[in-house]
Structures are given as C-alpha cells and as structure tokens.
Amino acid sequence: MSDEEHHFDHKGESGASKTFPQQAGAIRKSGYIVVKGRPCKVVEVSTSKTGKHGHAKCHFVAIDIFTSKKLEDIVPSSHNCDVPEVIRTDYQLIDISEDGFVSLLTDSGDTKDDLRLPNDDQLVSQIKDGFAEGKDLIVTVMSAMGEEQISALKDIGPK
Q1: Burial of residue 62, with CB atoms counted within 10 A of its CB: 0-12 exposed, 13-18 middle, 19 or more buried
Q2: Contact indicator for 148, 14 with CB cutoff of 8 Å
Q3: Which of the listed residues 11, 55, 88, 107 has the most CB atoms within 10 Å of its CB?
Q4: 3-state secondary structure of 86
Q5: Which residues contact 114 (CB under 8 A, 6 or more apart)?
Q6: Element (H, E) at 121
Q7: 32-85 pLDDT per residue, tens
Q8: CA 4 → CA 1, 7, 14, distances in Å?
Q9: What's the distance, Cα to Cα, between the start and end of the chain in Å?
Q10: Which residues, in sequence order, are bridge partners of residue 102?
Q11: Is 71 exposed, middle or buried (0-12, 13-18, 19+ CB in 10 A)?
C-alpha cells in the first residue's frame, strides 16, 4: 500500500441522502418521484400492458413540490426511478423581514434565517396577517434535494 494521503474536495452534501431508487411499478399516486431533476408529488399513474417490444410502461403525471408545475414521465415498470427524500419540519415563526425573509425558531432554540416567504400568495397573506395580529404561528417547511420552502401554516393561538 502507498503512504500517500488522499484529499478529496467535496462541495456541499453528497447526493446519497437526497434520493433513493424505487421500481417504477411500485410508485403510487400521492407518492414522490424525481421528474426532469425536480422533486414531485405523483397525482396520476397509468400502466400500459406489455407490448411486443417488451416492458409494460408507467406514465406518471406529477406536480413539482416547490414550483407547482405539472411534469410528466414515462418509464418501463421494471426500471428504477429516483424518489426524493422529502422531510417536513415545523418551526415557530419569530419575524418577517422587509425583504421577505422569515426568522424561524428551531427545536434546539436556534434561529433559522435563510428562508423566504413562499410563492403561494394565499399562504403569504395568511402568514403576514396572522403575524400582524400577534398570533403564535407554526410554519411547516418541506425540504427535498437541497431545496426548502414553507408549505403550510398552523395557528396555535395568541401570544
């Protein structure tokens, strides 16, 4: 063996925990799938029968969980698809800055200040109105494949 030291430059996280493979035929409606490199929620699945050219095919219609864009993909049912690791975390809302960033309180007592208000105008108005009224608000942050976004809001009463 050599006595050399090996140094590996790594940028960010490894992609290993962001997605995992799952057979296309096993992915169901309201599950998750990666379509065109985007994490999506499956809204429709149809499977064609095996034809003279081999595999049965799964046709997926999915909605991007961050942009709400509709995407479609067709995959042989015996092949593997990437499935994103989707994590939901609840944080207490502390503050909303002028430039649209939110300050959130984590379970450990630290603050998380790197998230913007979501693109959903209805959710943004609910967050801003509740905050202006002085209510205690819990936001649900959905994260997948290195992206994070506020996806839901819970009102736990006045402060």
Answers
A1: buried
A2: no
A3: 55
A4: coil
A5: 101, 148
A6: helix 121-132
A7: 999 999 999 999 999 988 877 777 899 999 999 999 999 999 999 899 999 999
A8: 9, 10, 24
A9: 64
A10: 96, 115
A11: middle
| Residues β-bridged to residue 71 | 62
pTM: 0.79
Over the stretch 78-124, which tens digit does the pLDDT of each residue have?
Answer: 999 999 999 999 999 999 998 989 999 999 999 999 999 988 889 99
According to CATH, the topology of domain 19-84 is: SH3 type barrels. (2.30.30)
Which CATH fold topology does 86-155 show? OB fold (Dihydrolipoamide Acetyltransferase, E2P) (2.40.50)
Under 8 Å between Cβ of 57 and 47: yes
Q: Which residue in the block uniquely carries the two structure tokens 């430039």?
A: 99
Which residue is it, tokens 């985007």?
Answer: 38
